Amino acid sequence: MSVHRRLRLLVQPWRLVVERFDATSSLAEVASQAPASGFAALVRSAESVTLVREAKGGDIGVVWRAIEIAGSFAFSETGVLAAIAGPLADAGVSIFAVNSFETDFVLVHEGDLEKARIAVEAAGHQLG
User: Fold this and answer.
1) pLDDT per residue over 82-111, tens digit each?
2) CA distance readout (Å), 16 to 2, 79, 124
3) Are 67 and 127 in contact (CB under 8 A)?
4) Which pTM does this prediction carry?
């Protein structure tokens, strides 16, 4: 089933950073840099290890904000992420997608958050 309905989106308060580590990095060592609570995501690929975590004082670089797609979706449902990514791409907003078992998070540069809000609301989605 493809998504053809209005989605409810939530802007989370987290200010996030995306860090890249060498592919040979220990997952346990990288994971130890994530907070004990709050938002974190860890991904290993052949090319690198990526950690998404809440920003701390002293972090430099791009700060991301998370837009959560409210509610859970079956793995067989298609088009959920595309329903958000398309309008954001059309508005020139870069994204970094992170998924949990329950839902998707679309990360946008903090400076693009208002532009993202306008784009997804113009596409008919509710952003709170």
Assistant:
1) 999 999 999 999 999 999 988 899 999 999
2) 30, 25, 26
3) yes
4) 0.90
